[in-house]
């Protein structure tokens, strides 16, 4: 009896999830880009999920904390990336900081520390001097090492790509999640940060199904292989 009851509630939960997912509509909880943007991932088999953020955005910090657990449940076919938004010069410095940390292999350690410094400690970290002092005191990064990374061609190139993503996705604010270069969800459309992740899960499954559907399409038979009438 207990097993049947457990199965019953499990089925109810499944139906509730399907019903909720079915309610996610294009133009309501998410938008589809008329012109998809190039994805960062090199694998066509992966579903790319880009979280667009700014260190100066408190909602971005809140979403990043929610995503810590959310990211662990994704399959191997999902490529998760963070992309710093660039609306203009004030955002450029934080974008370069992000990619400089990536260049120095410090991103995993320092990403949340930068968020905390800006959001909880009131440190703007919007110029090289303040960035250098922070990274040196917190992680022992040498001034010359940070300056090299911050001004490198690779970092500048990455910030240009991030700027192109911001424009291509027609973003008006952050945070935002872009799924497979085609679909965009933000807290306003989704109805909050937690709902953003639910809509993102729905869009990941949607993109996954689209990729699977493409793979299953059989090529058309060549003309010479068509059956000829018998004499």
From TrEMBL:
GO terms for cellular component: periplasmic space. InterPro entries: DSBA-like_thioredoxin_dom, DsbA/DsbL, Thiol_disulfide_DsbA, Thioredoxin-like_sf. Pfam families: DSBA. Disulfide bonds join 57-60. Residues 1-21 form the signal peptide. The keyword Disulfide bond applies. Residues 210-231 are annotated as: Disordered. Belongs to the thioredoxin family. DsbA subfamily. This is Thiol:disulfide interchange protein. It comes from Parendozoicomonas haliclonae. The lineage of its organism: Bacteria, Pseudomonadati, Pseudomonadota, Gammaproteobacteria, Oceanospirillales.
